[in-house]
Design brief:
about 280 residues; alpha/beta; seven-stranded parallel beta sheet; disordered C terminus
């Protein structure tokens, strides 16, 4: 988990940020406006509509392929592999014993620098979610004008749909960069509050209109793939998996610790993302 004692080396976090920034330097993020329905209890604007802001991503495909190929872990990948990885929209940062929360904060800042305004951070356990929220709160001074919000029913007495909607609407309406920290269990089942329809759309569907960049935090690669697959409910612009486990995998690996001896993924991959 992110809350374990890790090596808090700024140089390593900077290497990860630079690696992700280098790959996504060929991607252009701009803010895109859309409207939200008002039937979920949110206040109407003077025009009767609620304006929201999300990400729009444009990509120079050939430059993107070249940038991904430049990653040390991708040097043996074929052009077909690279194009398949880009089509999947999912990328991996294998952190090893490095502190994931610091690495994720750096990458979030990098995506904001590139123009993204909506980022979702998804953790595989409630403990990991809360550890990440505490870490980001501690690092708040270095996050600039980025607002970080924790989505957790434990924050409220008598959790209601209106309170869930308030968090989601605040996240979407803000014109400033926003990070929403959420646990896997809050969106991975059809019965979860975010997936329940009230009117024409669920709260998860509304988040999907913003096409957020999704950063996932897990101990294992298998767990990262599972949560990345579930996060497709948000129609993400991209998914970056941050994992403690390090091994050679058939995925787009942007960063891997050079000093770590890695395991190889089995020839038969038991679980593939269904993008």
């Amino acid at each position: 988990m992110a809350g374990k004692q890790r090596r808090r080396t700024g140089d390593l976090a900077l290497k990860i940020r630079d690696a992700v920034g280098s790959v996504f330097s060929s991607v252009s993020f701009t803010a895109a406006e859309f409207t939200l329905p008002s039937e979920k209890g949110a206040q109407l604007s003077m025009t009767g509509e609620i304006s929201a802001i999300g990400n729009r991503m444009d990509c120079d495909r050939s430059a993107f392929v070249k940038a991904l190929k430049s990653c040390p872990a991708m040097k043996k990948a074929t052009g077909e592999d690279l194009n398949r990885y880009i089509d999947s929209g999912c990328y991996a940062v294998l952190c090893g014993e490095n502190d994931r929360s610091i690495a994720m904060a750096g990458v979030a800042l990098e995506f904001v620098r590139l123009g993204a305004v909506k980022i979702v951070i998804a953790a595989d356990t409630p403990a990991e979610r809360d550890n990440l929220a505490r870490a980001f709160e501690t690092m708040h001074g270095g996050m600039g004008d980025i607002r970080v919000t924790l989505y957790s029913h434990e924050n409220y007495d008598g959790w209601t749909e209106n309170k869930a909607a308030t968090i989601v609407y605040d996240f979407l309406e803000s014109a400033s960069p926003e990070i929403l920290i959420i646990g896997r269990d809050s969106f991975s089942r059809r019965t979860n509050l975010l997936n329940q329809k009230n009117g024409e759309e669920s709260l998860a569907a509304l988040i999907s209109r913003a096409h957020p960049v999704v950063l996932t935090s897990t101990q294992t690669i298998r767990g990262g793939r599972t949560i990345a697959k579930n996060a497709q409910a948000f129609d993400p612009a991209a998914v970056i998996m941050f994992t403690e486990e390090v091994k050679h995998i058939r995925s787009a690996v942007i960063y891997m610790p050079a000093e770590v001896s890695v395991k190889h993924e089995a020839t038969v991959v038991q679980e593939q993302l269904g993008f």
